[in-house]
Amino acid sequence: MLRGDSLTITGSDLDLTITTTIVVSGESDGEVVLQGKLTADIIRSLEAGAVTVEAEAHQAHISAGRSKFDVVVIPSEEYPNFTDVDGEQITIDARSFEEGLKQVVRAASHDETRITLTGVLIASEDSGIRMVSTDSYRLAVRDLPSAAAVLGEGDQVLVPSRALNELSRIIRNEEQITLVIGESDIMFETGSVTLRTKLIEEQYPAYRNLIALERSNRLIIDRLSLLDAVKRVRLMVSDSSGTATAVRLNLDADHVELVAENPERGRASESVDATYSGAQLTVAFNPDYLIDGLDATPGEVIFLDTVDEERPALMGPMDDDEFRYVLMPVRVS
């Protein structure tokens, strides 16, 4: 929609809607509905420089340099009319929110048949908010103490991770973000962009016991040293699709030995200096999920707490308790 020199662009699949406003050189007001992916592909393919868009009743003409496209338009009356989300506006720090999203969204499920697990839980927690995601194999929890006023005590919403993935790209380099939480929708506003998505109206599974589980074994290790070692030995157990099976961690007093074996490829092992206290233990993890956890955990030195080779392990930074990552072991012979 063009009004003067202000062009408002809206894209939606009914569940997720993104609107942005940019300054252009407008000649006459109006609005047009175009096929989203086709139009975006055309614009991306054009040479750098000015782009001209002229709309008629049945066609839009897009041109730049020597390129010209005539695109069939969609009747405006067929495009849905979106109303504003009705709720209190709350402004929080965008940088900490973006950081939290990067840490938790990765652990959400991509299986659309498990709709609840495709969401990220945003809930009031003590003096701030908590973001939680899980795909049942791992669980990521991030607390944001500075966002105390986002939700009322005991309140929570379940936001689709797909929408939050888009949001994390939108809020880069922004300082603040405004949330508006409605009955069945949530809206995020930052700069000239607004993102709106439907909430998942399902009960999120209980997760607190996974964090509170008493674990008597603790490994303290340099995060990057372990991350690099996992990436190396993972090469031995990844298949042609890039999917990896399991990497074993043999925990010892002053080091951890990583072992990856594949009957068709061979064996890889690497020892990393560490401090370990607890029972002698060998525990195996999916290396992709372990890498995700190591990548998301902040700080130079981390802990990995375990019970045994079957019950969930807990990972986190040694210097704060705002992020926790729970990881289920893999059973290996």
Backbone structural class: alpha+beta
Which second-level CATH architecture of the largest domain applies? Roll
What count of structural domains?
3
Kindly estimate the percentage of residues that lie in beta strands according to DSSP: 35-45%
Q: CATH superfamily membership of the largest domain, which one?
A: DNA Polymerase III, subunit A, domain 2
What spatial form do the alpha-carbon principal axes imply?
Answer: elongated
Strand order of the largest sheet: 11-8-9-10-22-21-20-15-18-17-16-19
Strand element count: 22
Structure description:
The structure is a single chain. The protein has 333 residues and is α+β, with helices and mostly antiparallel strands. It folds into 3 domains: 2-78, DNA Polymerase III, Chain A, domain 2, CATH 3.10.150.10; 89-208, DNA Polymerase III, subunit A, domain 2 (DNA Polymerase III, Chain A, domain 2, Roll); 213-327, DNA Polymerase III, subunit A, domain 2 (DNA Polymerase III, Chain A, domain 2, Roll), CATH 3.10.150.10. Helix content is 17%, strand content 40%. It is built from 6 helices and 22 strands. The protein has helices at 36-45, 94-104, 161-170, 208-212, 223-234, 287-296; strands spanning 2-3, 6-12, 16-23, 52-55, 59-64, 67-72, 89-93, 119-125, 128-134, 138-144, 156-160, 176-181, 185-190, 193-198, 217-222, 247-251, 255-262, 266-277, 281-285, 301-306, 313-317, 323-327. A 12-stranded antiparallel sheet has the order 11-8-9-10-22-21-20-15-18-17-16-19. A 7-stranded antiparallel sheet has the order 1-2-3-14-13-12-7. A hairpin with a 5-residue loop joins strand 21 (313-317) and strand 22 (323-327). Helix 5 runs antiparallel to helix 6. The protein is elongated, with a radius of gyration of 24 Å. The mean pLDDT is 92.
